[in-house]
Design goal:
The protein is an alpha+beta fold and 510 residues long. A hairpin with a 2-residue loop joins strand 17 and strand 18. The chain has three domains: 166 residues, Immunoglobulin-like, CATH 2.60.40.3650; 88 residues, Zincin-like, CATH 3.30.2010; 200 residues, Orthogonal Bundle (Neutral Protease, domain 2). 34% of the residues lie in helices and 24% in strands. The chain contains 14 helices and 23 strands.
Length: 510
Amino acid sequence: MKASRQRCLIFALFYVTLFTSLSHITLAQTAPRLDYTIGISDAARHLFHIKIQASNITRETLDISMPSWTPGWYTIRPYAANVIKLHAHASGKRLPMRAIDKQTWRIETEGHRTFTIDYDYFADNLNVNGAELTEKRGFFLGTNLFFYVPGHTTGTQSTLKFEIPDGWRIATGLKQSKEKNLYLVRDFDNLVDCPTVMGDFDDFTVTVLGKTVHIVIDPKGQITAEAGEMLRGYVSRVIESQGKMFGGLPYDEYWVLYVTGRLRSGGALEHENSTNIMLMSMPPDPRGLIGVTSHEHFHVWNVKRIKPAGLIPYDYSKEQYVRELWFAEGFTSYYGDLHIRRAGLNTVSDYLRGLEIQIRRLQNSEARKWLSLSDSSTITWLSYGGIGAGFTNFSTDYYNKGELAGLLLDLEIRGATGGQKSLDDVMRSLFEGYYQRGRGYTNEDVEKIASEIAGQSFKDFFTRYVNGTDELDYDAALKHAGLQLVGGKIADLEHVTEAQRALRKSWLAE
């Protein structure tokens, strides 16, 4: 009887798996497909021209929508406001279409299984989540420019073709095909997650842990050969340090895009296999770039692969509220700084001075007494990236306090395990147990994993410091490394044990 039940269960699982596979195949066969071409309508007037070939259309109407926000930059933006002369046509005839909301249009297909969508896009916003076109170059993030079919093409393969002037080149994390200027797109997430530079730029490559890293500086001529070599060294060392922590790099190639010019605002943004770092100009000493580069590269794990559950899948139509941005950004800040130290690019004293600055920043913030890390993560949509003059952003900076919470949690785990385990183990556990299994995490998951690794409960830690507004107990954590906070400075305890010295050495790679 038992063997019979087992056979029935095996057959049931077989048919469920088969049905699921056939369902996925059927959906892929029936889903609309959009293939994109980007060219130039009038560079002097900042106008891109975009053509979308829609195919596999089986319905009387087709809705197309433009994102209202960019993942990683948590603010609603009217990207669709820059669309000009939008129309769809087939067999030489315009197809009827009407606006459904501020970012969505409905096209009457009139029985056509394929048709073309054309429009210009005004690109005069050189910004971390923007787009710019001039007679000398182009830059864009796909959330600005490209439409998708809600519910379908976010999971459909496509292509992106570039029609660019002679002498221009392309730098993007998209996968290049064998055809010149044609790129293969895994899905819409992939399309809009790859910032792109078009024009003439300086570029360097370096191999790190067997993977190629491209370093692009746009526009060309801002860096000397000597500074370029220094930058290659800095970037490769910090990426190597991060990669070794996770046992390798999770991409085939990585693109670091340093984009300079007349910015609406500076900043940087993380992507699955690239980052766009926006600057007014390149600093004379490339060492000044390593902090932001380290932070953004660590995001290839934290937030691009290790994701809050509330960001799976991305919903480009509206805000996605999550309580875990303190972990996604704050812990990335912690490791961004820590890996600069681990890579030997600064001294232990330099690193500790950086922590002192972060502590002063938090202690000078009145909001820390009123808004928890979780709540500040949730309401970030009110103020992310800054709002107009006069707006008072009364919120806890979850980059800043999140970094310090990461410091405390790391040291408490190290202390509880005699230096045998650390926050590194929590990050690896999330990567292996959540990302590689297609799962997102919550605050409760982080607490559970940290508690299991440390062999002690962190419920009180999360209640007080993550979901509450208690003051961070710096000394309780620092003592595990033989340190204390005195007058805003991190200093040795009066008596430092060998165990504390060993833990500090492991933590700071002394």
